[in-house]
Amino acid sequence: MSVFTQIDERLAQFAAAQHTVLTRDRENHWPDGPGSLGFEERRVDWQRDGFNLAVIIQPDFGGMAVDSSKWHLYALAWQNVEVGSGRRVAELRLVSGRPFTEIEARIEELLTEAGVYLNGLQAHDLRPQIDLHHQRVVRQQRAERRQNGLGKSLE
User: Fold this and answer.
1) pLDDT (tens digit, 9 = 90+) per residue, 82-95?
2) CB 115 within 8 A of CB 85
3) Which residues touch 52 (CB under 8 Å, ≥6 apart)?
4) Phi and psi dihedrals of 4, rounded to 5?
5) Contact between residue 4 and residue 24 where contact means Cβ atoms under 8 Å apart
6) Number of other CB atoms surrounding residue 107 within 10 Å
7) Hey, is 35 helix, strand or coil?
8) What is the DSSP letter of 39?
């Protein structure tokens, strides 16, 4: 039986209020990663003013395995951009690494807080997402240019 049984109806109501649908569970896209057979999760995704918005409830993925004794609920906004990191984000973690029963007990309060946060965001509230892989590549390219005598003038 799903851990979401007691709150699925409320999540579906919240999704309908955002003019979208509730997404239940999903297959994992990491073949050998956490939950490679899929995992229980709930998402409500919608768009507003060019932003992608989501309320996500999912288990912890610490240690490259799904830990269903710890759960997270967060509100996430992102906007894809063509320059820089490629994405600007804003995130509010409402529950982090807590038992699912805490989310269950507080679902009304948590959804209200998430909805107010996400629907109140403006463009200036989103910050560039740090892409660590991209940063490593740029640092390596800079180091190679310095080694080749090109210096910082081309950066």
Assistant:
1) 765 578 899 999 99
2) no
3) 45, 77, 78, 79, 80
4) -90, 0
5) yes
6) 17
7) coil
8) E
Amino acid at 78: W
Burial track 50-83 (b if 16+ CB lie within 10 A, e otherwise): ebebbbbbbbbbeeeebeeebbbbbbbbbbeeee
- To the question of pTM greater than 0.70 for the whole model, the response is yes
52: phi then psi, degrees, rounded to nearest 5: -95, 130
Tell me the two tokens of residue 77. Answer: 């906004």
Neighbour count for residue 35 (Cβ, 10 Å): 20
For residues 28 and 114, give the distance between their C-alpha atoms in angstroms, rounded to a whole number.
25
Sign of CA dihedral 121, 91, 88, 47: negative
**How does pLDDT run across 54-75, given as a tens digit for each residue?**
999 999 987 778 889 999 999 9
Task: Identify the DSSP state of 130.
Answer: P
